[in-house]
User: Fold these one by one.
Assistant:
Number 1:
Amino acid sequence: MPLYEHIFMARQDVTSQQVEAMVDQYKGVIEQNGGKVEKTEMWGVKSLAYRIKKNRKAHFTMFNLDAPAPAVAEMERQMRINEDILRFMTVRVEELETEPSVMMQKRDRDERKDRERRERDGGGGYEGEEA
């Protein structure tokens, strides 16, 4: 079966639980049509480069899919209907990435930097701030 990377953006005002429900719904669509979702990554809320449907931020989620084209087409059709989905994009790839995506690696690196900065600054607030 063909391999795909699929990314969708959900409105910023939906909750993380609602995004997880969407992920489960679209996974079900793929699996019902004979495909499988190899990997799911939820990248969290990110700022957009420009406003999309009056939103400045969105929840980003990525799927690695091993699915026939009709399964992907059905998932995209359902995403077009859903008002909480701002944008989506599916790209056919030669092979799926098994390790975390660049976005997940970036998040880990940023969290480490923040943790090191807090430890270096004494675990408190900003420099010069009185308690």
Number 2:
Amino acid sequence: MSTIFPGNYVAHLNAYREQGVEALPGIEFYRIVGALVLNPDNDSNLSGGSLSAATYNLKVLSPDMRQDDKPRLDKAFEIPANSVVYRTSISAPGVKANAAADTIKIKALGANAPGNTGSEITLTAGSDKFYPANGATSPMLSLLNGTAISTSAATAVQVITSAANTAEQNPSVGADRLSPSAILVEVCYYRPAAAPDIEDAHVPFATEAGSGT
């Protein structure tokens, strides 16, 4: 855990290692980015790099870029229990829809937002069937007035693809190039920081009898 009080700086956060920052006293902030990778070359699980209309889990990808040797495997993209989500965003670089106006949506997280819709951000394909390069972002849900989303249990981050035609041979979403394309989802949340330890209070060491001069 890094501490970033006024005057301090922190490096790019490592989502795979679940690295956060204590940017405000007593609160740890996290930014996790997960992916659903579409690779038409070798991903047999995605029918040649295509997705039908369905709900899909995402992964926090391993930092090991080699495909033939990954000592650290991809991890499930989950938000821990008792976290407060205040921002979500979604993008789909290199992904082409089956038709204009097809959508990819982040499935709702938690149950504290009005209508449970605070995290349901939708990305809509344009007339060229590609999704906007700058993606889609949620409004900044309030940290103070209760509209941020609390998770009562570990919550998987998922996306929902929707299209008029959902047949396998005419998929709703697919990789449109011979290199990996991906649906990317960012979730920003915070959690209570740990209670203070001995060093925080500068508790003096005990003095043994007879040690004085």
Number 3:
Amino acid sequence: MNEEACSFAEEVYRKAKEYEATCTGCAQSVVAGLLDALNMEEEGVFKAASGLADGIGLTGDGSCGALTGGCMVIGLLFGRERKDHRDVMKPMRSYLLCKELHDFFVESYGSCRCHDIQRKLMGRTYDLYDPGELKEAFRSGMLEHCSEVVGRAAKRAAELILEEREKEVAKE
């Protein structure tokens, strides 16, 4: 990747990490960081990511919200349009790019599941609906750990997006 692309990916990393540290909501933080850097206004995509934090609905029992947020933006940019819904091959680009982001999570954390990532980084999981557990999660450094995961996910998604756009330009 060239210097400009590396700078862009670092900007996405910083923005997404800061959003997670100050606003929380891992999926929305990745979406916001990517959309900001891409100069895109997509309120619907941002809003749709709101239920995906902490492995869906703060349960920890699902894919990390940072992964799903990155996949949402990848799908926004490279996914199948409604008019092509019956064309089973149209979404292949977004499938492949999201698989690469998934594989990055598995390589980095041993899993893409939120609870597994929490255990790896913090030694345990937390019930974020329990006020005592929520306080303990924050005391344990969950915001710092999750902010780093969010930043790294957003950066990797940005790299995948840039690489795919470079392929598009090369085809022209």
Number 4:
Amino acid sequence: MRFFFDNNLSPHIAHAMRELSGTLANVSEVVHLTDRYRRSAPDIEWVRGLDADGPWVVLSVDRFKKCGGAEREALRSSGHTVFLLESQWLKQTFWLQSERMVRWWPQIVAQAGLVERGAFVVPWHHSSKSKFTAVRL
């Protein structure tokens, strides 16, 4: 599986997840938007760009509501699996986001391996009973 972190998440967190995933056989690549596209690339550009070598697992805090729904439609038709982090993630410091991503990462990888596509909300709070909520893009 290949994971793509949107620009609203730190490239440092994406790269840390890449390094921490080195022992996971089912994770072949973890990249941040800025590894492949310019920082200001519109969502529709990178979503369509990922289609060329997809499918990907996309992580974002965005709700993809710009451009009159074109981004959501592009994601729906792409076949990518999307994990939408609750907006509370953006209210936290870099270090708290990092700690929480490390806690959620095994569940994100496991869930991504169970589905071919879909969208799921990743809550900020994490416990042994925490679950994703499936949503429609």
